Amino acid sequence: MKYRVEKNIDSNDIQSDLYIRFPHLVKLFQDVAFEHSNYLGLGVEVLIKMRLSWVLYANYIKVFNYPKLSDKLTITTWVKDKNGITVQRDFEVKNGNKNILYATNLWVLFNIDKRQAIQFPDEIISMYEPEDSDILPEVNYRLPYDKNINYEYTFRFNTRFFDLDANEHVNNITYIDFVYTAIYRMLKKVVFIKDFNITYKKEITISDEIIEVQLNHNHDKINFRIVGNNVIFSYGSLAYSDFSL
């Protein structure tokens, strides 16, 4: 079953040129995933009572165009069937007839008490009426970790109570915001991300007071990782443009 809603770009979402910031664009469609679950009666409150939680494992985003202030976006999302302990969720975002982005997420269902991922119960998956279509069938979104990358730039960030989610972990959008801010500090300018691939390895908590974003820059491509106390929290790669797509 496909779930579709409309969202407006407002003044809290934009940068100085009136285009939406990349982390805010991601947050818009990620929020629709939670709205979809709420609509089906599988929202955060229900899952917590079951001592379960959704945890994002990987996120691949391909951006075609950037919307601006007051644009109205149509966001469509759907779930594919489970594959082992992961389930795939796809997104299509449009502004009228114009494609804004395609995205693919991999999620796991986390047992809060056992602190581990579990197999998806059939009764939960069936409520989503899984679709058989892939929005990005050609993409390998399970990005392998390359330990040979030389990260030339390091930027430090403090974790904040404001960034915590219902699991008391730094929410996944904040990881992206850390990376986006580090890129701005490195390049000293705003860029438009075209392709973005991130894998979440470990949760960041409020006790991880300072984390580091490390960057490797090669022309219009950047490899990144988020680390702290010899722990890799996430890693990924992206490509960018100097101008709006």
Task: Describe the 3D structure.
By secondary structure, the protein is α+β, with helices and mostly antiparallel strands. The chain folds into two domains: 1-135, Thiol Ester Dehydrase, Chain A, CATH 3.10.129.10; 143-245, Hotdog Thioesterase (Thiol Ester Dehydrase, Chain A), CATH 3.10.129.10. Helices cover 19% and strands 41% of the residues. The protein has four helices and eleven strands, in the order E-H-H-E-E-E-E-E-H-E-H-E-E-E-E. The protein has helices at residues 22-39, 44-49, 122-127, 172-187; strands at residues 3-8, 52-63, 72-83, 86-95, 98-111, 116-118, 153-158, 192-200, 210-218, 221-228, 231-241. Strands 1, 2, 3, 4, 5, 6, 7, 8, 9, 10 and 11 form an eleven-stranded antiparallel beta sheet that branches. Helix 1 (22-39) packs antiparallel against helix 4. The longest helix is centred in the N-terminal third of the chain and has 18 residues, at 22-39. The radius of gyration is 18 Å and the shape is globular. The chain starts with a strand and ends with a strand. The model has no long low-confidence stretch (mean pLDDT 92).
